[in-house]
Amino acid sequence: MKIYAIKTDKKEIEKNIKVTSFISDNNELELVYFEKDKNSPNILISQGSGGHAYVFAELGYLLHLQGYNVFIMPKHGGYTINELQRRDIDALNYIKHRLNHHIGVFSEGLGELVVFYLTLTHGSVKVLYTKMPQQYSLKKNFTKPF
Description:
The protein has helices at 10-16, 57-65, 81-98, 110-121, and strands at 18-24, 27-34, 42-46, 69-72, 103-107. By secondary structure, the chain is of the alpha/beta class.
C-alpha cells in the first residue's frame, strides 16, 4: 500500500484505513475506506483514470476526521463509461446497504464524467457540484460549478 500524504502523518492514515470489497459485474472490487460510524454521512470518491485509491487516502482521512465515512473507488483506467457507471452504482448500493442512504460523491477527471452521466441517466446522484465547464452545469436540477 503506497499512501501519498502531504500534510498528514502516513502512520496515522495507515492506522485508520480499511479495505473491504463489493461485487460489480461479477467481479470483486477493492473499496478502500475510513469508517466513522453507521449513522454518519458517507462520501464516495470517484477519481480519474490514472489515480488508484491510495492516492486519495489523505483526502479521505481528512474528510473522515470531519465526521464522514469515506469510500474510495478502485482505479478507473481501462474501462468504458458504461462499465464505470455500473461500478459506481454498485459501490453506492453497497454503501447504502452497509451504512445508510446519506451519500455524497466527490469526483475528478474521468470519475467526474462518470458521475455526471449517472446524474443524467440513472438518478443515482441527485445534486452535482462540478469542476467541469459551465455548460455541463446548466441542466435542470444541477448546481453551479465551483
